């Protein structure tokens, strides 16, 4: 399989199939990022299509010595944040969208579901700037440096936003009846 830089070079030379390969390679990761940021599958699907269209038309701005996935993540995260700001709405989730982890008893399943809902609600209630770095770090498991590159912000800003996100989550979870350490269950 060709590397991303070679595929970008082919796309810029007019090869449409090369871009289709890039889309196939990254569509799942971009959808997952957008879904975690919006909480809505349909919104994430629509935004993912917009992101790939936007990336296609900005492909000449990609630096060949750069990391294509970080560049694409940055476009996706920024586009999603712009859209959420434009809509000025709070993200809600339905019970069907919260997955249960198998447990031994119905009581444990109920308690686990309740805990997950509290945690997800608290993550979604974070300010957009904190939510995006939190999701990239703890759900997508990117390093601080990768988040810095993806979001095009200084490393110290990433650290500060993560610190504040954890603090706000800790406070919100204490009020919601869940512990900060239960977040590993989502």
TrEMBL record:
The keyword Transcription regulation applies. Residues 22-90 form the RNA polymerase sigma-70 region domain. Keywords: Sigma factor, Transcription, Transcription regulation. It comes from the Bacteria. Residues 117-169 form the RNA polymerase sigma factor 70 region 4 type domain. InterPro entries: RNA_pol_sigma-70-like, RNA_pol_sigma-70_dom, RNA_pol_sigma70_r2, RNA_pol_sigma70_r4_t2, RNA_pol_sigma_r2, RNA_pol_sigma_r3/r4-like, WH-like_DNA-bd_sf. NCBIfam families: sigma70-ECF. PANTHER family: RNA POLYMERASE ECF-TYPE SIGMA FACTO (PTHR43133), RNA POLYMERASE SIGMA FACTOR (PTHR43133:SF51). Belongs to the sigma-70 factor family. ECF subfamily. This is Sigma-70 family RNA polymerase sigma factor. It comes from Brevibacillus ruminantium.
